[in-house]
Specification:
This protein is mainly alpha-helical and about 160 residues long. The protein is about 75% helix and about 0% strand. The chain has helices spanning about 1-45, 55-60, 65-85, 100-115, 115-135, 140-145, 150-155. It starts with a helix and ends with a helix.
Length: about 160
């Protein structure tokens, strides 16, 4: 009986160690993807105006099938919008708190640029939050972004 308990404990410890290692690897992979997306966005943004960041997103992230790719795409948007020359782009983007207008703008933008359809609203929502921050001259809290998010707008429709 003691031998079975000892083996069970050993197996459990090994499984926990393997799980912790795999979790750390996944975290590192996601962090690397976000860092690479941010660097790519900043580099591309230095050469263009903000209105071209959406097109760059479509070219670089045409098909994202992993969490890492989605994180990289969102970081790309932040980096591109930060470094790109300001133009009329953000003046045409509704405030994040105006949910219905933001949803309409997002749908129109998605149909115009057509980045991967099921991910488009996620990406375009990032542009809405970045432009709102730029227009208001401050950083939005995660709560503000969530409370004003598309989930709320979809429930209101």
């Amino acid at each position: 009986m003691k031998k079975v308990v000892g083996i069970s404990i050993t197996v459990l410890v090994v499984l926990l160690a393997v799980g912790a290692y795999a979790s750390k690897q996944k975290y590192d992979s996601m962090l690397t993807a976000a860092s690479q997306g941010l660097a790519l966005g900043k580099a591309y943004g230095k050469m263009i105006s903000q209105s071209s960041c959406v097109l760059g997103l479509k070219m670089k992230y045409a098909a994202c099938g992993t969490t890492e790719c989605e994180l990289s795409a969102n970081a790309y948007i932040a980096g591109c919008m930060e470094k790109a020359a300001k133009d009329e782009f953000c003046s045409s983007v509704p405030n994040i708190r105006d949910t219905n207008k933001a949803l309409s703008w997002a749908a129109k933008t998605c149909s115009k640029y057509n980045p991967e359809a099921d991910k488009c609203l996620k990406y375009i929502h990032k542009f809405v939050s970045v432009c709102t921050e730029q227009t208001e001259g401050r950083t939005l809290s995660n709560k503000e972004i969530f409370d004003s998010g598309f989930e709320k707008g979809l429930k209101e429709r």
